[in-house]
Amino acid sequence: MAQIYGKVALIGLGLIASSMAHAMRRGGVAAEISGYARSQATRDTARRIQLCDTVCDSAEAAVEGADLIVLAVPVGAMGVVAEAIAPHLKPGATVIDVGSVKAAVVEAVGPHVPDGVHFVPTHPMAGTEHSGPEAGFASLFDNRWTLIVPPDGADRAAVERVEAYWQALGANCERMEVTHHDLVCAVVSHIPHLIAYTMVGVADDLSRVSDQEVIKFSAAGFRDFTRIAASDPTMWRDVFLTNKEATLEMLGRFTEELFALQRAIRTGDGEELFDYFTRTRAIRRGIIEAGQDTDAPDFGRAKKHDR
Amino acid sequence: MAQIYGKVALIGLGLIASSMAHAMRRGGVAAEISGYARSQATRDTARRIQLCDTVCDSAEAAVEGADLIVLAVPVGAMGVVAEAIAPHLKPGATVIDVGSVKAAVVEAVGPHVPDGVHFVPTHPMAGTEHSGPEAGFASLFDNRWTLIVPPDGADRAAVERVEAYWQALGANCERMEVTHHDLVCAVVSHIPHLIAYTMVGVADDLSRVSDQEVIKFSAAGFRDFTRIAASDPTMWRDVFLTNKEATLEMLGRFTEELFALQRAIRTGDGEELFDYFTRTRAIRRGIIEAGQDTDAPDFGRAKKHDR
Fold this sequence. Notes:
Two copies of one chain form a homodimer.
Chain A: E1 5-11, H1 15-27, E2 30-36, H2 40-48, E3 54-55, H3 59-63, E4 68-71, H4 78-85, E5 94-97, H5 103-109, E6 118-119, E7 122-124, E8 145-148, H6 156-168, E9 172-175, H7 178-205, H8 211-216, H9 222-228, H10 233-242, H11 244-267, H12 270-289
Parallel strand pairs in A: 1-2, 1-4, 2-3, 4-5, 5-6, 8-9
Antiparallel strand pairs in A: 7-8
């Protein structure tokens, strides 16, 4: 039990914020947790499940006297929220966000942060396909990476405290520069999501294959795409609108490669296909060795193996 | 314990065949199991782990007196194997294959099947990213679909027996017409695999993002792609070479959709992105309702939720 902050204010009460609340309580990381969500329904749910010590009806009220303010709203809403709470921030307080994109957040939030208040962008790389205050659970961040992306001239002590906070929630931390963060995330997260959304959309459109068939036989690979493609639409819309440059660049590379494989299929170049498919196995092995996933069969899904 | 066949011969001893061996023993489905693999190393391994009652040094010897012959080799090798074993098949015996593509297999194997021997193409839609005789486990087919794809004029009794056999291995069976099978599988399996291979290849090529970073931060969606992209290269090469038409058609549709989303990102059309991403959630829900996957968070991976 290591308390890092006194009062922590959660602005936005979705999957990430609600998981942070559970993890803070599990670790005794905060003395008090206040929360705010824009929708009345979400606030009611949060109160019913007692997600926070107090759920306020305004962001301004929630941040009153808070030592740490967590912006856990879609990237597109960060600027507005920051502007609204700015006058109510306690001197010496620290503001963090949990957005999947960083350059756009620094640009939108930074100007509103008053002198004497610290701003440390962070990005917990954990999630599920579920959303909302009831989707959270305390172990979401355990052994997952949280990227700490301090802007130039950020207060060293404030950054280290934020790092200690995320570690207390179970996360491994790594620091990254803003632009590089957005590129890396385009590769490992944003583009995979866009592709999954596209593939699911294609299947949905296909007239000669019924939805029933798509659903029934999804286990054969497609299922992993639908899992990714079920993530929160608002969050992902904002990710692509705010990480446009890196996303479009990676998309270009992706289609380039896809067309090369398409030609290999059309021309019947089995050797190229085989070599390509062999190369991808190495990355997979690396991920298992890095402890980022299990080596269990059936694509890591829980399963009994009775031989 | 329901014995369906006397002697069953497994030609090819990879993930599918070895899982069939375990499942046959679990269910007492066969009186005797013989096996053959082209590589000496694979045969040695199969003998060491006692995968079959007898492991033969030739396919001809393995099928001697067999009531059911299972062609469990890559689609591209089916024709050669069928030709080799044809003269040694017992009258009244049944030959099945477990290939992921059907039109090409019917074309390659059909002509070699002698009169009085039945040929019933099947496709167990189950697998893992692991390969080889040691990768198999008895529950691989449990509650997964096995598609039965009988050619025109197939013997009704023989087809029903094959169906009973797969059900005894734990599978749910559905009959499908050859061409339709290849289209459905292109959508739910072949294209998702090709896309996963491509995305992993892109990440691997990217100079400004180190492999280390790709691997470290893979949890954010990319991991599911690497899991798919780790499947057996030979099998998948053959799938794309032999299901060329359906694959290329689906690829065309996929890139069409992808370009539409790419334009939406470029022009900043958030509404289109939001609507698209919302639509894909329905399919995901359908898959969970159809019992094809779990609703557990963290993308279905096993995980403790201590709230």
